[in-house]
Amino acid sequence: MTRIPNAFRxxxxxxxxxxxxxxxxxVLFALSVARIGRRGERGFWLAVAAGMLASGAxxxxxxxxxxxxxxxxxxxLGLSLGLGAHRTPWRIWPGRAATFERRTVRAxxxxxxxxxxxxxxxPDVARGSWPRPPVAMLIGMQPGQDLLIAREATPAxxxxxxxxxxxxYRLLLEISGSQMDVVHAAGGPGRLLGGxxxxxxxxxxxxxxxxxxxxxxxSTDPDRDDARAIATxxxxxxxxxxxxxxxxxxxxxxxxxxxxxxLIARALAAWKGDAxxxxxxxxxxxxxxxxxxxxxxxxxxxxxxxxxxxxxLGASRIxxxxxxxxxxxxxxxxSVRALAxxxxxxxxxxxxxxxxxxxxxREALDIAPIAAVQVELSPWQDGALRGGVVEECADRDILxxxxxxxxxxxxQRRLARDPVLAEVAARHQxxxxxxxxxxxxxxxxxxxxxxxxxxxxTARTLGRRLSLSPEDVAALDARFPAxxxxxxxxxxxxxxxxxxxxxxxxxxxxxxxxxxxxxLASGRRRVVLDNTYLSRASRNAVIESAWSQGAPARCxxxxxxxxxxxxxVVQRMIARHGRLLDPEEMRRASRDDPGVIAPxxxxxxxxxxxxxxxxxxxxxxxxxxxxxxxxPGFEGRxxxxxxxxxxRASRSGARSPRSPDDVAIVPGARDWLARQRDEGWRLxxxxxxxxxxxxxxxADEVEAVFSRTHELLGFEIEHAWCPHGDGPPVCWxxxxxxxxxxxxxxxxxxxxxxxxxxxRDASDHAFARTLGFTYREAxxxxxxxxxxxx
Amino acid sequence: xxxxxxxxxVRVGGRPKHIRTVRIVERGLGRALGRWGWxxxxxxxxxxxxxxxxxxxxxxxxxxxxxxxEIPWSxxxxxxxxxxxxxxNGRFGGFAEQKPMFPALLSxxxxxxxxxxxxxxxxxxxxxxxxxxxxxxxxxxRHGLWCALCAFGMLLGLGRGVAPAVVTEPLGxxxxxxxxxxxxxxxxxRRPPWFAAGLFLLTLAMQVRPGAQFVLLFLALWMPWxxxxxxxxxxxxxxxxxxxxxxxxxxxxxxxGTGESSFYRPWPSCASxxxxxxRPARAAxxxxxxxxxxxxxxxxx
Lengths: 790, 301
Hints:
The structure holds two protein chains of two kinds. By secondary structure, chain A is an alpha/beta fold.
């Protein structure tokens, strides 16, 4: 059903303004129809009636205060009063009316012509004598150096020649005219000229910063509404938004892949503005099975996702295509190469990354030019600032798309109640959200906030740009100190290396054994901070705090391997709880005991670890390797075997015997084990039975299988087994995680160096290496024996 | 309107004495307003600006001050920013160039006002007052005092709601009012060149803000019908006036803009040659089909 919106029936806000026009149209239409019968005027009145009817559909169909509401009634007035009248006798000043009328008409035309001429040639004349700020052009600057000086020298206009785009250069020359001052780098900031305006030049290249909008919530909000979403998008576009950020994964689940992109395509198709000015940035690399967010950074997936996005957007080429998130299972280089291939094929104009660390960004930049990096950035989430991502982007002229710039739903109350924000907002009669967005923009010209309105009313505010005064900026910077990183060059923040005081930051993964407090003397102005500090952002908070007190910071990096950290964690757990905790117990215990750590945490730590660098601001980085000390009293020796495939096998061909009757002993195993037992070795065995988690076997059935195994062997082996299912590791007892091995060590006070683990595959090898056991292949022992399977 | 009705009633059914009194009052008032009404008109047009401050909270983010208050609409901020950019670097930004007439003129006014936005906007109010006064005076000359007052009241009633809100409207109304005066006079006196001049001003008004462009077309067609003794010449005048006005606006946009504007193109021709650009906005059903979906290059331009 076609619906033509107009002022006659649309909302009250529209009717309020447009009703005079609508009324006049109706009156004129009626008048025209009434006069159609007049001889000699029939054609004219028919035309007027038709014109009114046709035009009526457009009255107020746009923004309620747009031109239809004024110009059109004006026309109606003119037609009804003047053009439509048959006779127009002079009513005032009889006898002199012709003179007065001639003067009136001439004045009217002269007035209109003067206005037109003023608009046409006036700006050039005015511009010639308009006071312009001086421009300082820096020569001989290194990339990045001009940026620092630009920040220092505000409010001067600073032109950085290095890497600057041609159009910007030309524009700045036009601005400067003959008032260009050239300042050589040797002159330093002190020679820069002051001026009333500031042009931020980021990384030597300034670019137009688009007004942008994040569209995720239009598809993921529980109370979403497509019609409202389209109205919201169009309101944002009307407000001047020229960059829309979306992703194929924005929807409720896998069945809605591309929902958000299709919304944008519909909104743009129905938008009456110039859609070619609007750039759409979309992403690939996340899937939504069951509504979860699962990364998939494989090249094949990205290529398919890009094709689907182009189809959903109805675009032959995507303006900016971003990797939604690094995939832990796929090398970042693979994903970036896939994006670069899309760009090379002309399917995307520019490529970008999302949610990456500085190290990942640098790795990607070595492969392909990155145009934009999207990170979470808000006053309350400053990890991207502290982690150096924003600074790196600003130096390299990469756009920083800041998602959740207002902190998201979690920080709504915080946003509304923050006293500093409220004070600045009141000063400008603006909202705290406007202040936050303006503050983010003030940090760097590279930063483009991505607010995500879900209603047209809020979307209309996106075109506004609040201008913060220096006092406002100072107050906000004091409230959110991470801004110092962008405002004050590192050289000015950093105290001399020999300044009094010493802040030592001890970093490493969880379970790295950071007990250096005892080893590091704690003297005056000396602080030892012991935490994981995996990211540059977390370390930066410490460094900046130290610098603000005039104290240098140094780093002690405990280079503990993942395997050692795993053993440490399990040892700590057994020491505190007496046994291995199952996943649910770990979840509960971790609330009160930070020492209880699930296996996934360590893997995540390893992924997130950003190698410390001197460039972060440390005076020194001391690397301390982890060395496991011999434990007094732990001198026992044991042979630990993997049961399935090493000691026993399934007659039915299953991975492990499913019942006592299904057990068969591997040839040679019994004799070899008996020989070890006779030589005084303690015999232990471990196994994995996910059938219990799958509920295809019960624990007592598993124990019956073990009993049958021992019965066939003719002797007992101390055994332990993992009952948890497959998939990502959630317990410590599944090989190659060291839980069962550590349990045996602790229980029998074993010396790992004197223990032998007999297995048959790579995971067995990894298990032995983690624990420090000597690894032996099962076939190495059992091949020579001639025992048959019994 | 009530006064006009009262006057009419007196004329129809009143006593001769009362009728004479009404005529005297009309003539005195008409002459006074014809000479000094411009001051009253300007004053009346400044009232909406005052009421904007007194009666409506300013929009969030309106950073520029206007007389008696802040510009209560983000568009206004965009135009003023565009005017400043025009003065500073010879280009107004992508937003302001969509309606190039107003920011271009505003930049000149800002320059004349030495950068004072208060004074610049007061000048804009004066322009609007004078234009509406001229239109009302012409109507008064042709149709009498009450029609003039009604016309002015109508203009004020229409404009006061939007003048303080969208600062392009005053300029559109100013051009429209001036066009009205010229059109009415030239139609009555049957002078095609002047009528074309009125069409020219009216087209400019439409270009300041896209309005009822169909009316413009019908007017252009009606002109040769009205001046049927000089039909060919009238048609030429109408076409020349409209095309010239459109070209002027386009030149303005090209000169000071970055070529991204979509509003100064001739809308009628745009509508006839690119119907797809109209259809989705006016009549696209929800979930537009592949047939009606416009292929827009997300990045190729």
